[in-house]
Design brief:
- The structure is a single chain.
- Helices cover about 15% and strands about 35% of the residues.
- A seven-stranded mixed beta sheet has the order 1-4-3-5-7-6-2, sandwiched between helices. Strands 17-25-24-21-22 form a five-stranded mixed beta sheet, with no helix packed on it. A five-stranded mixed beta sheet has the order 27-33-32-29-30, with no helix packed on it.
- A hairpin with a 5-residue loop joins strand 21 and strand 22.
- Helix 1 packs across helix 4 and helix 2 crosses helix 3.
- The N terminus is likely disordered.
Length: about 725
Amino acid sequence: MGMRAVGALAILLFVASVPPAVPDAITLRPSGEGALVSPLSAPSPSGTLGVAPGYDDASEFFMGDVAVGVFLVESAGFAYDWSDAEANQTLNGIYAGMDWWVGQDARARLSFEYELHVRTPTAWEPIQNSLDDDWQWIDEIMAGLGYTEPDAWSKTHHFNIDLRSRLGTDWALSLFVADSEGTVNQGLFTNGQYAHAYYGGPWITMSRYSSWAYNSADYFRAVPAHEIGHIFYATDEYDTGPVEYAGYLNCPDSNGATGIMNRNTLSISTSTRCQIGWVDSDADGIFDILDVPPETAILSIAPDPTNETKIRVTGSATVVPLTNRNPYGPRNDVTISEITEAEFRVNSGSWANATPSDGAFDEPEESFAFVVPAILASTVDPLPAYRRGGIFNLTVQSSPEAAPRTVKTRAGNTEGNVDETPTQDEIPPAGEEPSSVELWYAREGSVFAWIGTDASPPWAWSFDPAAAGGDGLYRFYSVAVDAVGTREPAPVSEDASTTVDTRPPSLTLVGPADADWIASRTVDVTWVATDDGSGAANGSVSLDDGPVEDVGTATSHRLSDLTEGWHRVQIVSRDRAGNDVNASVTFGVDVTGPVLVLVSPDLTREITENRIALAWNVSDALSDVEQVELRLDVGSPIRTTGTAYVFDGVGDGDHTVILIAVDRAGNERTLTVSFTIHADWITGGGAYGWLPMVSLIAALAAGGLAVALWRRKRRPV
């Protein structure tokens, strides 16, 4: 946000002026706010007016750059004095209100520049007077700034136009703020108002703060935002009176519509958008007021006084304003669009840039000129932008004109619109056949050197870049010479150019890795291609020596629906000169997991020892088996490349072993083996089942019986 601080003014004397009739407020309402028609609101005098905003046009539609002169008015008395905090609060509120407008629609290209007049002195105490009398102390302030017009409106308008010129904006207005207190008469002027503004300017006047205002909680932002709407012809929408028409497009308001022009709420009604000019009827991103093609005219066609071998054509281009239908204001047809380019072409040739007469295309109205070959003119025929080297031919065209040529001109503006009906005129026949033609060349940034002279048409030469320095940019121009030695002046720039590039690009494959196996039918091939000469232009991809697919400047390509097995991809990178380089990668696609079959143990039988010996067969038809992973119950995984493994020390009970076979592509096959170990002979386990226990019991029984019999034999009879 641009800002200029002008500082406090020192006005010591009250300067009175004879007031004109005070205008009536169009929308003077109990709301405490109103919009007025300025005494200056009248059609501009007839005469020649430009298309850019003139002296009378200070705020015709709400687009572009707006200059705001801010006056924080300080009375000579002591009833109200601006504190620094009040000044900063007020200025920040004004900036915020304008920034809110900036953010509403980028198509308006709104921006604001400020010139600050802080504590501008006056003999009046503005807030202790009627807002209808603001013109008296404004007249005093403007007279103190050196303006001598007969009334406050004319003085302030003159100030605004000067402000617009100083800050380089499209529009300008003044905003006067009277110091006040919300606790004293609710911050109102003595006539019960807190703000008003004039349609089309020249000023806004407002109380520093009023609790009476709609949306007073956001007063410092919302009130300046509301009032500048009036400056650009938006009418109030909080009343129930008759429909009011205003604005460049003469649009009706919509009383009661929610928005900034109703109760100071920060939104914009459709009707307000129309009144300030924000209508894009064809939805092309350009508001209608600026969406008008420019026009061009050819002014003269004559020999160039500085070069008799050329014909100089002059023309003009102007942006076209939309008709102003505003019932208020100066009602001039104006635009802030500017000419950005002017072009010409001869017959059906290519469009070329014309030269602005003042050095730049940056105004609503521009004059331009261009030259075309006439007498004793030659030019090198176009060359390809890039070539791969080798000897090539250059030809030159030079012949007298036998028939008139048609020249057309067109212009473009800041909105991107181009003249829809290019102006055209005829260049009369001129010229003579040269007796010889010279050819000149330069490599890279070197000076031009003579190649040779051809004494008879057709004008042609062979050129060997290898003998002239090798790769690089070569520029060429021709000079025609007549029978008496008159030479065509060398052109300002070359007639034709070409870049010689004999080196192929650099190509590096990134992925996949060569001989890699991939567990997907979709594979992304990526590479890096660079070229230090003409630059990498395009690439192509082919799969398994099949059709070649152009991929442009992309550095990756997705292959889909691939079959299983080996594939070969070839990448070709080509530079702009046609040099190419290729690289290939071979990879395998394997989306099928390995075959995994358990060989032993026999899971239909109970395992009677505290170990489990596993054996399996595993195979993979494509990428081969990478490893087998085993996990007993919740134990740690064990990886092996073999086909057998023994778990020792396995306790009695139910167990599970999970085998996972993984191939080189990463595919997996899982086999779950569940078994029970019963090896404890006490419980009937082990290799002999209950036999040990039965034998033990029998032995114990036999032993017991033997002892009993022995004791019985020893008993006396």
